Structure formats: C-alpha cells, structure tokens
Amino acid sequence: MSLQLLKEREVPEQIVDERSEDEDEALQGIRCPRCSWRPSASSRWTCLWLDTPEPYFDACGTVWNTFTTRGRCPGCSHQWVYTSCLRCDQWSLHNDWYERTPRPQ
Ligand SMILES: [Zn+2]
Ligand SMILES: [Zn+2]
Fold first, then answer.
1. If you compute the radius of gyration of the chain from its CA atoms, what whole number of angstroms results?
2. Rounded distance, CA 89 to CA 25, Å?
3. Would you call 6 helix, strand, or coil by DSSP?
4. Which of 58, 56, 25 is nearest to 43 (CA)?
5. Within a domain: residue 103?
6. What spacing in Å lies between the alpha carbon of 53 and ligand 1's midpoint?
7. Model pTM greater than 0.85?
8. For residue 21, is it within any domain?
9. pLDDT per residue over 26-66, tens digit each?
10. Of 20, 36, 58, 71, most Cβ neighbours within 10 A?
C-alpha cells in the first residue's frame, strides 16, 4: 500500500458576509443644527460630564445611541438637554437635532 496521499485540490470555503448595512444608514430626520451631519444607527454617545453645557450630574459612562432614547441615558436615566456632534464637536439642544418637516398643505 502506497503511503502517498492523493493531494486533493483544496477549495476554500467562501465566507459570505451577509450582515446588512442597514444599521449604518443615516437616521431619518436628524441632523446636527450646526454642520448638518447626520448620525447613523451605529453612532454612539457617552454619558460623560465633561465640557458639557449641562448642569453637573453624576455621569455613569454608558455608551449608547442617544437618538434611540431622545437623549435619555439608559444607564442613569439622566435626560440630556444638549447633544454634542460627533463631527463638529459642538453642543446643541437635543430637540434642535430633529428636523422640522413642513406640514403638507
Ligand atoms: Zn455638527
Ligand atoms: Zn448616564
């Protein structure tokens, strides 16, 4: 019996990444009032009291997408009045981030 092994041609398995890109789509109707940057579903803010216009509170460090909770921290329930822009670093009132769509007449 021969010890020679038949060398089979290896066919690398194709790994298809099926993850959808939907998560990264810009959030509808939300943009920075100062630079018009649109956050996406994967954008993250941190509950951190540092260089913020907010009155002092005991920030908890939670990282989340602030537009999924309208500015309320899921960690300590602090209602953020201001939201910083991840692009221009400026603070704006959270409510100012929501575009006012003109009512259809
Ligand atoms: Zn901005
Ligand atoms: Zn918090």
1. 23
2. 21
3. coil
4. 25
5. no
6. 16
7. no
8. no
9. 898 999 999 999 999 999 999 999 999 999 999 999 999 99
10. 71
